[in-house]
Design goal:
Elements (H helix, E strand, L loop, with lengths): L7 E7 L6 H9 L6 E8 L10 H4 L4 E5 L5 H10 L5 E4 L4 E2 L4 H9 L4 E10 L4 H17 L9 E3 H6 L10 H11 L3 E11 L8 H16 L4 H8 L1
Helix pairs in contact: 8-9
């Protein structure tokens, strides 16, 4: 696939994100270049897409989709089913692409040996503690070839369809997808650039959030049922 022919569909699953959706879409509109095929927002309630402002609704690359089912995995699958780009990029609503982010995706995916990829992680708070957390997460992802969803996982559309997309899981749908990619011989790469994600889930108690995430991840790798883990996470 040549540089000229690659285009990207960005899929944004949302749930009760009316306060941040317009800022997120405006940050994506900055990336509206020849390689951006479309931005697909999939909302399971409808309140988020109903909050999208008029100047964004008229953006010709924006598609607003209401899902009949709740669950990030199913919302992302629905968005993927409506996508027409060569590359599917799954982006959280509280995460912002870096400058030239789409071009770094294209540069990576020009390598036909790479089937999927992700960004390194950074946070919207510039502190040593958050920089250490981001560095550790990025290194873990690179060592295990298993990025998390907040690193904006992207995958060739035909390969995503081949492995039947995300499994319907309340947690770890991102880890499960990467595991199945690797088990089927598909290589996961990294752009070498960092995405900026919100620190909001850590702000009530940073230490408790880190310990919770670490403990739940360990339990998942030991085979504990994800439905039980989701209850513990919440």
């Amino acid at each position: 696939m040549s540089l000229r022919r690659i285009n990207i569909s960005i899929i944004v699953p949302v749930y009760k994100e009316s306060k941040i959706i317009n800022a997120e879409l405006r940050s994506l509109k900055v990336h509206d270049a020849e390689h951006l095929k479309e931005v697909i927002v999939v909302d399971c309630l409808g309140d988020t897409i109903s909050a999208v402002e008029h100047d964004l609704i008229t953006w010709d690359k924006l598609k607003l989709v209401k899902s009949e089912v709740k669950g990030r995995a199913m919302q992302m699958n629905l968005g993927a089913s409506k996508a027409t780009g060569d590359i599917l990029l799954f982006l959280h609503a509280d995460t912002e692409l870096p400058r030239n982010g789409l071009f770094s995706v294209i540069d990576l995916m020009r390598n036909q040996k790479i089937s999927a990829g992700a960004f390194d992680l950074s946070f919207d708070i510039d502190s040593l503690l958050y920089r250490i957390t981001a560095f550790n997460s990025s290194m873990r992802s690179r060592l295990l070839h298993s990025p998390y969803g907040d690193q904006a996982i992207f995958v060739r559309r035909l390969i995503f369809e081949e492995i039947l997309g995300f499994h319907n899981m309340p947690l770890f749908e991102d880890v499960d997808l990467c595991r199945r990619l690797k088990n089927n011989g598909f290589k996961i790469g990294f752009t070498g650039t960092a995405i900026v994600t919100s620190s909001r889930r850590y702000q009530k108690s940073y230490t408790m959030a880190i310990l919770r995430n670490w403990w739940i991840t360990v339990l998942y790798y030991f085979g504990i049922d994800v439905e039980k883990l989701a209850k513990l996470y919440n």
